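Researcher: Next sequence.
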Amino acid sequence: RLDYSKWDHIEISDDEDETHPNIDTPSLFRWRHQARVERMEEQKKEREQLEKGKQAHKQKLQEVEQKLKSQALSEADAKKMSMTKEELKKQEEEFQKKERELLKKEKEQPWNIDTICKEGFSKSVINKKANDDDKNKTEEELFEEQKLFQQKNEKQLQHYGMLSKAADSRKYLQENPHLVSEKAANYLVIWCIDLQVDEKTSLMEQVAHQTIVLQFILQLASKMDTDPRNCFNAFFNRFEMSNADYMESFNDELNSFKKRVKERAEIRIQEAIKKYEEEERQKELGPGGLHPADVMETLPAVLRECFEKQDIPMLQKAISEMDQEEAKYHIKRCVDSGLWVPNANAKDDGAEEEEVYEEVEGSSAPDASPSASEANTSAPEAKDAGTEV
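Model: Next structure:
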């Protein structure tokens, strides 16, 4: 038969007793609880003192027995140690008696909510989201991790992006759960833009669909505050049910995403064109870093007409009639842009060119000036602008 006697004396919870209406029940419960806690503390201190005394007594007894075994003790010291040992033996009996009394007292103590049960085992499990650690990382660290992730999983990500059936996507993510992450979504977004830049619109729309699938899984994980790898089955269950409201929300987000991809691709194309045009413009700059077209637009009308007609005598006359400081300014800009080549001695009409330059500068042309052929190379549009002079 089972012995239920140990349940006969249980101290009920502080808030389960009935009290007189005139008694302040909350105050009574607090007093009872405090009194019970104090009693338990006293018992705990008494047990600790007993254990501490037993340990000290045991250590003393071991020391005495060790000394009695020593051959260096005199007869008087040996007799004294023997008496000490007898006293310690009597003290040991007293400790045993106190321990029996304490055990009896603890056994007779009614059980309560703090002593009626004990914790069998304790285990804490933290459901940590995959991107929790990313919050403490720098942009450089995140960029490097993204780069390594793409290099390692590029083929798998492209395979996932090409899938068209929900069942195939579910199965592939089950086999490759590491793809359910923000890094995978980032790669797919960039890939969509690259495809649209290359005018592969149909393929872009396919990859965009898979991107939104992954984005919905990440969004579901965020709402549930859990790891995305635990959510993709729940998403596909909803997706395969084809709920009208859910599918409408999915398609709206998909269409919005494809529109953003096309806009971003157009911006990238315009930036590439602008960059190419700037590079070509840099190639056309003259030896002084000026563009021939910019200089032509800022020349006085009379000088611009001379360059357009390639008429050197007309140019000589125009310069002679201008203020010399102004003439120097414009001729220097023409030289810096490649419109004017001051040291074109290789040509037969180079003498006339030198006369114009010397008339403005008041000295012979510098030897280091580029030749006419070099000027034509550095400024490809000089010939079209009528500046072969």
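Model: Residues 346-354, 361-389 have pLDDT under 50 and may be disordered. The domain at 141-280 is CATH 1.20.58.610 (Methane Monooxygenase Hydroxylase; Chain G, domain 1).
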